[in-house]
Protein backbone atom coordinates (compact mmCIF):
# COMPACT_ATOMS: atom_id res chain seq x y z
CA UNK A 1 0.00 0.00 0.00
CA UNK A 2 1.07 3.58 -0.71
CA UNK A 3 0.41 5.52 2.50
CA UNK A 4 -0.51 9.16 1.86
CA UNK A 5 -1.06 12.34 3.86
CA UNK A 6 -2.96 15.16 2.13
CA UNK A 7 -2.41 18.86 2.90
CA UNK A 8 -4.94 21.22 1.28
CA UNK A 9 -6.60 24.31 2.78
CA UNK A 10 -9.72 24.29 0.59
CA UNK A 11 -12.21 21.90 2.21
CA UNK A 12 -13.97 20.94 -1.03
CA UNK A 13 -10.71 20.13 -2.84
CA UNK A 14 -9.41 18.26 0.23
CA UNK A 15 -12.58 16.16 0.34
CA UNK A 16 -12.51 15.49 -3.41
CA UNK A 17 -8.86 14.38 -3.36
CA UNK A 18 -9.49 12.12 -0.36
CA UNK A 19 -12.50 10.51 -2.06
CA UNK A 20 -10.68 10.15 -5.38
CA UNK A 21 -7.56 8.53 -3.95
CA UNK A 22 -9.57 6.28 -1.62
CA UNK A 23 -11.03 4.58 -4.73
CA UNK A 24 -7.56 3.25 -5.60
CA UNK A 25 -6.93 -0.26 -4.23
CA UNK A 26 -3.21 0.36 -3.63
CA UNK A 27 -3.48 3.81 -1.99
CA UNK A 28 -4.39 4.52 1.63
CA UNK A 29 -5.17 8.10 2.72
CA UNK A 30 -3.96 8.31 6.33
CA UNK A 31 -5.20 11.85 6.94
CA UNK A 32 -6.04 15.21 5.39
CA UNK A 33 -4.62 18.40 6.95
CA UNK A 34 -6.22 21.84 6.40
CA UNK A 35 -2.98 23.83 6.86
CA UNK A 36 0.79 23.52 6.86
CA UNK A 37 1.37 23.38 10.62
CA UNK A 38 -1.19 20.59 11.06
CA UNK A 39 0.39 18.75 8.13
CA UNK A 40 3.83 19.01 9.77
CA UNK A 41 2.53 17.51 13.05
CA UNK A 42 0.73 14.74 11.15
CA UNK A 43 3.84 13.99 9.08
CA UNK A 44 5.81 13.30 12.24
CA UNK A 45 3.01 11.22 13.78
CA UNK A 46 1.90 9.17 10.76
CA UNK A 47 5.19 8.93 8.82
CA UNK A 48 3.47 8.51 5.42
CA UNK A 49 5.22 7.37 2.25
CA UNK A 50 4.01 10.45 0.36
CA UNK A 51 2.81 13.95 1.20
CA UNK A 52 0.40 15.36 -1.39
CA UNK A 53 0.25 19.11 -0.77
CA UNK A 54 -0.87 22.41 -2.24
CA UNK A 55 1.65 25.28 -2.35
CA UNK A 56 -0.14 28.16 -0.65
CA UNK A 57 -1.70 27.28 2.72
CA UNK A 58 -2.08 29.02 6.07
CA UNK A 59 0.91 28.60 8.40
CA UNK A 60 3.47 26.70 6.36
CA UNK A 61 3.35 26.59 2.57
CA UNK A 62 3.78 23.33 0.68
CA UNK A 63 7.29 24.45 -0.32
CA UNK A 64 8.20 25.13 3.33
CA UNK A 65 6.89 21.68 4.29
CA UNK A 66 9.07 20.13 1.57
CA UNK A 67 12.09 22.10 2.84
CA UNK A 68 11.48 20.87 6.40
CA UNK A 69 11.18 17.26 5.24
CA UNK A 70 14.45 17.68 3.34
CA UNK A 71 16.18 19.37 6.29
CA UNK A 72 15.07 16.65 8.74
CA UNK A 73 16.03 13.93 6.22
CA UNK A 74 12.60 12.32 6.49
CA UNK A 75 11.85 9.48 4.03
CA UNK A 76 8.46 10.97 3.03
CA UNK A 77 8.38 12.03 -0.64
CA UNK A 78 6.52 15.19 -1.63
CA UNK A 79 4.08 15.63 -4.52
CA UNK A 80 2.67 19.12 -5.09
CA UNK A 81 -0.80 19.47 -6.64
CA UNK A 82 -1.50 23.13 -7.35
CA UNK A 83 -3.14 25.72 -9.58
CA UNK A 84 0.20 27.57 -9.88
CA UNK A 85 1.50 26.84 -13.38
CA UNK A 86 4.60 28.96 -12.76
CA UNK A 87 8.09 27.87 -13.60
CA UNK A 88 9.52 29.72 -10.59
CA UNK A 89 7.45 27.65 -8.16
CA UNK A 90 8.55 24.44 -9.88
CA UNK A 91 12.23 25.38 -9.66
CA UNK A 92 11.91 26.13 -5.94
CA UNK A 93 9.98 22.89 -5.44
CA UNK A 94 12.70 20.86 -7.16
CA UNK A 95 15.36 22.61 -5.04
CA UNK A 96 13.36 21.51 -1.96
CA UNK A 97 13.48 17.88 -3.09
CA UNK A 98 9.91 17.64 -4.39
CA UNK A 99 9.41 14.52 -6.55
CA UNK A 100 6.09 15.42 -8.18
CA UNK A 101 4.52 18.65 -9.42
CA UNK A 102 1.05 18.41 -10.98
CA UNK A 103 -1.57 20.97 -11.89
CA UNK A 104 -5.10 20.71 -10.48
CA UNK A 105 -6.63 20.82 -13.95
CA UNK A 106 -4.82 17.60 -14.98
CA UNK A 107 -7.02 14.51 -15.50
CA UNK A 108 -7.87 12.72 -12.24
CA UNK A 109 -6.31 9.40 -13.33
CA UNK A 110 -2.98 11.19 -13.84
CA UNK A 111 -2.71 11.84 -10.10
CA UNK A 112 -2.88 8.20 -8.95
CA UNK A 113 -0.43 7.19 -11.67
CA UNK A 114 1.94 10.01 -10.67
CA UNK A 115 1.81 8.91 -7.03
CA UNK A 116 2.69 5.34 -8.02
CA UNK A 117 5.59 6.60 -10.13
CA UNK A 118 6.99 8.74 -7.28
CA UNK A 119 6.51 5.87 -4.80
CA UNK A 120 8.60 3.64 -7.11
CA UNK A 121 11.39 6.24 -6.98
CA UNK A 122 10.60 8.22 -10.13
CA UNK A 123 9.51 11.80 -10.74
CA UNK A 124 6.19 13.16 -12.00
CA UNK A 125 6.51 16.72 -13.30
CA UNK A 126 4.11 18.55 -15.61
CA UNK A 127 6.14 18.43 -18.88
CA UNK A 128 5.25 21.90 -20.21
CA UNK A 129 6.13 23.48 -16.88
CA UNK A 130 9.41 21.57 -16.75
CA UNK A 131 10.44 23.13 -20.07
CA UNK A 132 9.60 26.63 -18.85
CA UNK A 133 11.40 26.12 -15.54
CA UNK A 134 14.77 25.76 -17.21
CA UNK A 135 14.29 28.59 -19.68
CA UNK A 136 14.01 31.37 -17.10
CA UNK A 137 16.30 31.63 -14.06
CA UNK A 138 15.19 33.13 -10.73
CA UNK A 139 17.57 36.08 -10.19
CA UNK A 140 16.76 36.58 -6.48
CA UNK A 141 18.65 35.09 -3.56
CA UNK A 142 16.83 33.85 -0.43
CA UNK A 143 17.34 37.05 1.58
CA UNK A 144 16.18 39.31 -1.26
CA UNK A 145 13.12 37.09 -1.68
CA UNK A 146 12.35 37.29 2.05
CA UNK A 147 12.71 41.07 2.22
CA UNK A 148 10.70 41.61 -0.97
CA UNK A 149 7.88 39.36 0.29
CA UNK A 150 7.58 41.42 3.49
CA UNK A 151 7.73 44.68 1.54
CA UNK A 152 4.91 43.40 -0.67
CA UNK A 153 2.86 42.69 2.46
CA UNK A 154 3.09 46.40 3.28
CA UNK A 155 5.89 46.45 5.87
CA UNK A 156 8.22 49.44 5.94
CA UNK A 157 12.00 49.02 5.73
CA UNK A 158 12.24 49.62 9.50
CA UNK A 159 9.60 46.97 10.24
CA UNK A 160 11.34 44.49 7.96
CA UNK A 161 14.68 45.26 9.65
CA UNK A 162 13.15 44.58 13.08
CA UNK A 163 11.44 41.37 11.98
CA UNK A 164 14.55 39.93 10.32
CA UNK A 165 17.08 41.32 12.83
CA UNK A 166 18.85 43.33 10.14
CA UNK A 167 19.92 46.95 9.95
CA UNK A 168 17.74 49.46 8.10
CA UNK A 169 20.54 50.01 5.57
CA UNK A 170 20.89 46.29 4.89
CA UNK A 171 17.17 45.99 4.17
CA UNK A 172 17.34 48.95 1.78
CA UNK A 173 20.30 47.30 0.02
CA UNK A 174 18.40 44.02 -0.42
CA UNK A 175 15.38 45.86 -1.80
CA UNK A 176 17.56 47.90 -4.13
CA UNK A 177 19.30 44.74 -5.39
CA UNK A 178 15.97 43.00 -6.01
CA UNK A 179 14.56 46.02 -7.87
CA UNK A 180 17.72 46.23 -10.00
CA UNK A 181 17.78 42.51 -10.82
CA UNK A 182 14.12 42.55 -11.87
CA UNK A 183 14.56 45.71 -13.94
CA UNK A 184 11.58 47.56 -12.44
CA UNK A 185 11.07 51.01 -10.91
CA UNK A 186 10.15 50.30 -7.27
CA UNK A 187 9.56 47.65 -4.62
CA UNK A 188 5.83 47.25 -5.43
CA UNK A 189 6.57 46.52 -9.08
CA UNK A 190 9.36 44.18 -8.01
CA UNK A 191 7.00 42.32 -5.68
CA UNK A 192 4.30 42.01 -8.38
CA UNK A 193 6.71 40.73 -11.01
CA UNK A 194 8.36 38.23 -8.65
CA UNK A 195 4.92 36.93 -7.56
CA UNK A 196 3.79 36.61 -11.16
CA UNK A 197 6.92 34.62 -12.04
CA UNK A 198 6.53 32.36 -8.99
CA UNK A 199 9.78 33.53 -7.41
CA UNK A 200 8.20 34.53 -4.08
Topology order in helix (H) and strand (E) letters: EHEHEHEHEHEHHHHH
Helix percentage: 40-55%
- CATH architecture heading of the largest domain: 3-Layer(aba) Sandwich
Number of helices in the DSSP assignment: 10
Low-confidence parts lasting 5 or more residues at pLDDT below 50? none
Whole-number mean pLDDT: 90
CATH level 1 name of the largest domain: Alpha Beta
What's the structural blueprint in terms of helices and strands?
Blueprint: E1 2-7, H1 11-22, E2 27-33, H2 36-46, E3 50-53, H3 62-71, E4 77-82, H4 87-95, E5 100-103, H5 108-119, E6 124-125, H6 127-133, H7 142-152, H8 157-164, H9 168-182, H10 187-197
Parallel strand pairs: 1-2, 1-3, 3-4, 4-5, 5-6
Helix pairs in contact: 4-6, 7-9, 7-10, 8-9, 9-10
Protein name: Response regulator transcription factor
Keywords: DNA-binding, Phosphoprotein
Domain HTH luxR-type: 133-198
